[in-house]
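We emphasize that the prediction below concerns an isolated chain of 230 residues; any contacts that depend on oligomerization or on bound cofactors are therefore not represented. The input was used exactly as deposited, without trimming of termini.
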Amino acid sequence: MAINISHLNKHIGKQHVLKDICLSIGDGEVVGLLGPNGAGKSTLMKILVGVWEPTSTLPKGQEMVLQVPKNIGFLPEQNPLYEDMYVREYLRFFVGLRSKEQGAKNKDQLVEHLIARVGLTAEANKRVGQLSKGYKQRVGLAQAIIGDPELLILDEPTTGLDPNQLEDIRALIREMGKDRTVILSTHILQEVKQMCSRVIIIDHGEIKVDKPISEIEDLEETFKQATKNE
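Result of the prediction step, given as a token string:
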């Protein structure tokens, strides 16, 4: 099991951002994480990658479980890139951070493998700042899969891309989902239909829907009903 969570809560000040989250995600699943702005998606992802700690104080009789792989790749919504660095230089820097035990030759081979894997060969000699947004996303994805992570978390990876870039990145994410667990947070329902095997909808810090995509006839209507303000 890639992820096993029980009774996960998060308070930020007086706000109860995540409320008793319980879910399990198996190895190799591609999960679409949906919800309106402020629903708690980003908070959940930050807890999964270890940026934030969950709230430890729970009601009597509840025990929090948070089991996630140690090897996680993460592409945040605001892709943080060093734009003055060349593509190879940037990736080699991160390979060095994560693969200190490897020799220089092996690091160079890994960088070339990453460049080929995400389709950056033609752009590899450019500075990151010279790239289009689509190719910058490829650089971010290459950085996220260094070390062959068991879990890949992508936060709005296709925001702002043109139609051609959009299809390229979607195809790349589908390919990556063949050999690892992927959590894809997005506002684009069509992406979930095309790429995901399962849908989790969060609203007001609670899981409202958790179903295989094959069991959802109308995702738009399901989303609308799940996030409807009573």
